[in-house]
Amino acid sequence: MNYYIIDFDSTFTQVEALDELARISLAKHPARELIYEEIERLTNLAMNGQLSFRDSLAGRIRLLEANRDHLKKLVSVLKKKVSPSFLRNREFFKKHSESALIVSGGFKEFIIPVVSPYHIQQENVYANTFTFDEEGNITGYDENNPLSEEGGKVKLLKQLQLPGKIYGIGDGYSDFQLKESGLIERFFAFTENIERKSVSEKADHITPSFDEFLYVNDLPRAISYPKNRILCLIVGNVPEIAAHILKRDGFSIRVKETFEEKYVKDVGMLLLGSNVKLSDDQLTRADKLKTLGYLGDSKDQVNREICNEKGIVLFDDKKAKKRNCEFIPRRMADFINRGDTYMSRNFPNLQLPKVEKAHRLLHIHQNVPGVMAQINQLFAENQINIIAQFLMTKGNIGYAVTDVDTAYDRKLLKQLRQIDHTIKFRILY
Q1: Under a CB-based contact definition with an 8 Å cutoff, are residues 2 and 99 in contact?
Q2: Does the 358-427 domain belong in CATH 3.30.420.40?
């Protein structure tokens, strides 16, 4: 059996829990901003390996002035701050409830309530525990817990003696120490929320999302291909808000003045300012390009026929509306995330419902008779349970979206790609 050791602060959640607890417990303190800064400083020193974990922990707790009521409020906050890529991958934890462990220098009092809805067993949460006085005020922590010590995660794993390969994922120095000790097979530096260079430079693999971790290790995941592996190139005069929207969604962003040749073969999403003209040659060779956004009228700037031939979904800003610097990148993201083509310039307009426990298959083809018959014949031959199916056509483009039960032979995917008149085929999730 493989075991998965997962950090909590800034990994499973987007934030450092003790920092958040301070903002709750010290909300009315006159020197709260200075105390927040000191707590954050102590956190970062420990995470970067510049201060012992025990000294950092003791220093932070002394500054907190927190109690049980503050902890209840903290749990409510943390439940809303679960990292997006963990949030969408509950199925992994359901299937690996015995082998997924939370190992953290944080505290069980707030970790267990946050991770329990994700099928993580209480006995698989290894963390510190607070001590309280009779009024419920936090007075300290159990100093006998190895996780309260420097190198605590290493000491804990030596005690556990897990019988199998161990993979670690986290953002801090204490997580890297597991790799340094030789106790784990591979260490994945998690950078979705924060990247600590002192940690990521030494990792076996940098994982910008939990999707990436699951993809690399061929584990059950919500999406078929991590969004951080989709290169999104932004070229020309494009407002910063557009890049912010796409980066926040998890895409790998590059902002350039021109469409540089080195990006042509790898670009998956392309957002162009109104001052950019896209050459037919580059568009023809952009084989991985899935969607193109243009902040202006694309009519004389982008060859739509080539977009159609290559199955590239085009969104543009024909009327130059101010809001479109946000609207167009969101439409591009919706196509990648859900398969939506709403308000596309060249594709039939489809707005698709979200489905659970299914795979969504996108088939773009030439609009000629017989393609859907071939698609559905393959589903019948492979005994596929179809949950929903959508088909629309526009001009010479046919767009078929099929939601199917997750149990099927992967040979089906190859067969769908080989159907006559297929332009592009993609598994969405």
Answers
A1: yes
A2: no
pTM as predicted:
0.82
The set of residues, in sequence order, having a beta carbon less than 8 Å from that of 332 and lying 6+ positions away, is 246, 269, 271, 291, 292, 293, 313, 315
Domain ranges of the chain: 3-216, 227-338, 358-427
How far from chain centre, in Å, is Cα 15? 15
Nearest alpha-carbon partner for 209 in 251, 269, 268, 270 = 251
Phi/psi region, residue 202 (left: phi>0; alpha: psi -120 to 50; beta: rest), is alpha
* DSSP calls for 58-121: HHHHHHH--BHHHHHHHHHHHHT-B-HHHHTTHHHHHHTTTTEEEEEEEEHHHHHHHHGGGT--
Burial-class residue 241 by CB neighbours within 10 Å (0-12, 13-18, 19+).
Answer: exposed
* Beta-carbon contacts of residue 64 (< 8 Å; ≥ 6 apart): 18, 21, 22, 25, 26, 39, 138
Residue 299: other Cβ atoms inside 10 A: 11
Element (H, E) at 215: helix 210-216
Alpha-carbon distance of 65 to 49, in angstroms, equals 26
Backbone angles phi, psi at 145, to 5 degrees: -75, 125
Closest C-alpha to 289, from 258, 259, 262, 266: 266
| Whether the domain at 3-216 and the domain at 227-338 fall into the same CATH topology | yes
CA angle 189-426-370, nearest 5°?
Answer: 175
Q: Could you state, in chain order, the average pLDDT of each consecutive group of 10 residues for the chain (429 residues)? A: 96 95 93 90 86 84 92 98 94 94 96 97 96 93 91 94 95 89 95 92 94 94 88 96 93 95 97 94 97 95 96 91 90 95 95 87 96 96 94 95 88 94 92
Query: Each residue of 198-249: pLDDT tens digit?
Result: 899 999 999 999 999 999 999 988 888 899 999 999 999 999 999 999 998 8
Question: What would the two tokens of residue 150 be?
Answer: 């420097």
Contacts of 50 (CB under 8 A, 6+ apart): none
User: Facing residues of 399 across strands?
Assistant: 364, 392
CATH architecture of 3-216: 3-Layer(aba) Sandwich (3.40)
Q: DSSP state, 9?
A: I
Q: Which of 190, 130, 187, 179 is nearest to 154 (CA)?
A: 179
